[in-house]
Amino acid sequence: MIHRSSSFFSALLLLCVFALFGAGATLHAQTGTVRGTVSEAGTGLNLEGVVVRIPELDLRTTTDRSGRFAFRNVPAGTFAVSAQFLGYPPTGRTVEVIAGEETPVRLVFTADDVVELDDFVVVSGPTANERALARQRSMQNIADIASSDALGNFPDKTLADAVRRLPGITIERGPGEGEGRYVTVRGLNSDFNSVALDGVPVTVSNFDGASRSVPLDVVSTSSADSVEVTKTLRPDDNADSIGGLITIRSRSAFDREGRFLSGRIGGYYNRMISRYGSGYYLNEWGYEGSFGYSDFLNEAQTIGLSLNLNFREAPYASQSMDTQGFAEVVNSSRNAAQAAEGAQYEGLLAPLGVMLQEYFDEVKNKGMNAVLDFRPNDQVEYQIGMSWSRRDSRRGRQRQEIRFDDDYRYWNRTAPVTVVGDTVTEFTSDNRLLREVRDFYEEQNHYTLRFNSTHRVDDVTLTFLAGFQRGQFDGDPDRDMQVRFRTDFGDHTYRLDPNDPYFPEFSTERDRMDPSEFEVNRINLGTRFITDDEWIFGGDLQWEFNGGQSFLKTGLQFRYRTRDYQTVDRFYDRFTVRGGGLPTWFLDEAPDGGGPVTANYHTPRTVGNRYEFGFFLDPTRVRQVVDHLLASGQLEFSEDGLLDSINRSLVRSYDLSERIYSTYLMGQTVRDRWTYMAGVRVEHTRVGVDTFSGTENADYIFDSVVPVRGSNAYTNFFPHLHARYDWSEDLIVRLAGSSTLQRASYRQLNPSESIDNAEFTVLRGSTELKPTRSHNLDLMVDYYFGRVGRVGAGVFYKDMKDNIYRLNSIEDGSAFPGGIAGENYEVSEFRNARGAEVYGIELSFNTDLRFLPSPFDGLELFGNFTYIESDVNTGLEGRENIKTPLFGQVEFSYNVGIAYYKHGLNVRVAYNWRDSYLAFNGLDVDPRLDEYVDRLGQIDITISYDLPRGFSVYAEFMNVLNSPDRAYFGERSLRPAYNEYRDWSAYFGIRWSM
Fold first, then answer.
1. Strand partners, 464
2. Which of 480, 628, 690, 904 can pair with 592 through a Cys bridge, CB separation 3.0 to 4.6 Å?
3. pTM over the 0.90 mark
4. Is there a contact between 314 and 363 (Cβ–Cβ < 8 Å)?
């Protein structure tokens, strides 16, 4: 498909580009070149984003990441060259330009605050935050940057934590997840973002393998120089970033003037794990370490190597109260009197269960990042980069489930029933209790290999990129397991106080504290293997004129992605095991004769100290029993069970390929105080998916599968126009119009249809889903004052088309192969909405308090606030007058904090708050059942102190208030979804650099 309106607009914009930039090209017959570097005294750090000017000629440029700048076609004569950088007083020098020659310039910033102590000197230069502000100040488009400090360290342990300090950024974290690995940009969830490592797009799979979201622990903070979140794309950026383009930059030896060594070693403590006492299979202590090295490998300093190594082990635990969701009360009573009595409850909502869950996650990270540069002269550069990271995780869960029935027929009609609004808040029904233990071992590897080259000939620059990345997720078929036990039926009571909705009360007729009540019901030994590969090849040609301030640029790029998603399903239950049933196994007597499978640890109270969990299961002991049953032949598939295992694996597996061909043309020119950038990008996408569709019969056996092939192709045009107005040196206005898209996630593109005639459910995807497209407008005003002061204010608007959402609806079974007529099937599928609008404002500030008397003159205040609104036009009947936000769209969010930097002491206290948002598991036909993640506020504290000889000690405390993560269905006070507590944790240690 080709979008004609965008095509026409793009063609018109191209004419403007040629007219605007062609008119600005001027040449100087008697000219020379001024070329130089800017660095920082004391650290030898080459400074990026320094504004360098030749005021007499009204020429302005900024330094690159190696601190380099150049003015070409400068008329012969004597001129002053000045430089300005946040956190430093201005510097400069006078140079003589000789026609036909190159004039070298070296500028060095020296701090205006140097304190001599007994054994060492503290130089008070810019902080990491101030360096980032300096780079942002110099940019043409709108972006936010999180930067490492002069010692090569981020104050955060993951890059997700680092970028969540930026305006409009919040962390996504699901139930049981120990770390926030994914981020939301301007209220748009992580599916709307793309991540690149040194120019190579990144894809990393998780267990679900469902989306294009990329976790930001792919590269350790010890390997990263900075993380840049670009909110208004340029034509030379890949278009798949409606929310933002997150660029991770590795360190280079040319970032500094000479050798640099750094290291870090430390520990980790998790308060929640300490609550379980001795015998718990995780230790509350962890560790971390990193080592960094960069230097030139020859005397001429033309070959440089940067190497970073890192390792980390961090245990996590959390406690949660969950409901099984809510459903409309049905009334199938056969007795006429009961049916009449139950009619008053039909259409009301009732919970399906209450679950107490204990999650744990033991994470081990290690990685390496290496960059080799060769710069024989200022006109030629070659760079080879390699990155590898590995994340081993043991993730588990203990679940205790109290089930209720939404059919009035099974309610205890002598027990009280209470209704508040449209929800049943107290009732008693007949059902089962369940206990479950889950223990998964996951290995995630990510590899990146790239080659970059740059060639400059006079005013022409040619760049080339070739890259390969692989993201790999491997489960462990020998250790992964999920085992469920259940009791017989009994009456269970549910009570909810609307004034305390996240702590519903319950009671059970069965003794949930007695292991002998629970018998094995299901054993799941399945796992998944996912491999994502991507090749990228691209070249760019840029022609500079007007002293290097203006340019024309064009390029070509090819990206080839593949995903191999393989599921191994091994479900053992009464339908699949030979002999028609599982072996006899109660929790108090294991069939291998080795004693019970209950654990020797406990926690007195759980979930905010409100519930009694009782006994735990020992996952290691449970696995021993399962292995015994397998070895003794007691767990052996029947013929139907083997067929079911094979077919389930086929239906849930797929192979995907995606090819993206792109080209662009853009230009930039400077006119007085205005800087204009305009261009257009074209991307053609071809995708193909091979998989299977299947049908499950009433006996829970997948007995029918058919191969399915899906394909799609489309072309998109992306016009861009950026304008920057330097009202003064301190006041900068940026205006941008851009066009972007987001391709459907891999799971959404999977055309498989899974029909379950036992549970009456259908799950389907579609390769024919259109990508979500967005036309974007942004206006940002920044005012810089004092040494490091900044106030920023901006507004943005996105007009989106073909948003993709998950719809849960009801259809009659006769519509499906093998379906049962007259039964209501719950259908979950992905569709394109008609469109959506997103608009909002961003405010941010940063200032020091140097005007205060000592020692308070080391204080610094910072903060940002984002307000976002969105409205999705789903085109669904019944939702015309209901405002539906985007999934993951946060309405209000803000970060505020105070920092102290003086005499080697660095302290930062930050409070991060975000509003509630619509969860990612889809809309329901009944809007009352839309799930929302509730608002959350969290305080983090970071402290470090500089010691002699380049050493410093540090400590970081996360979530010091033990703020819980919560969610609800439609109405916070009546329908809780989950309530999860993680408690606080801390990193601490020592680091050094030289």
1. 453, 539
2. 628
3. no
4. yes
